[in-house]
């Protein structure tokens, strides 16, 4: 039986900025900043190589590792109607020592 490699999606470099939705600023995410790890909401169809290329292109840093996970859908009630929050994916990006992303610019 032959092993077929996974197919990677080829993202146009102009579309890389659309993969990263927003940075996450929570208590856990700020603790991860001390370890040079940054948390982002990303497009659910984005792959790890795509996320790595997008972060390196947008912020001019070197990415060592990308960990991703899908969050479970949460219920949302509006009156008597029950629905779910939109589906999204999170990525924890580890940067090379010495690189950093400025999430809070000085005003």
Describe this structure in words.
Helices cover 18% and strands 31% of the residues. By secondary structure, the chain is of the alpha+beta class. The strands form 2 sheets. A 4-stranded antiparallel beta sheet has the order 1-2-6-3, sandwiched between helices. Strands 4-5 form a two-stranded antiparallel ribbon. Strand 4 and strand 5 form a beta hairpin. It is globular, with a radius of gyration of 16 Å.
In a few lines, what is going on in this structure?
The chain is 18% helix and 31% strand.
Characteristic key phrases:
single chain; 107 residues; alpha+beta; 4-stranded antiparallel sheet; two-stranded antiparallel ribbon; 6 strands; 31% strand; globular
**Share of β-strand residues:** 25-35%
The value of Rg in angstroms is: 16 Å
Total helical segments = 2
Order of helices and strands: EHEHEEEE
The residue fraction in helices comes out at 10-25%
Strand tally, please? Answer: 6
In one word, what is the shape?
Answer: globular
- Report the major sheet: 4 strands, antiparallel
What topology, given as strand order, has the largest sheet? 1-2-6-3
Uncertain segments: none
Q: Mean pLDDT, as a whole number? A: 88
| Structure classification | alpha+beta
Distance between the termini: 60 Å
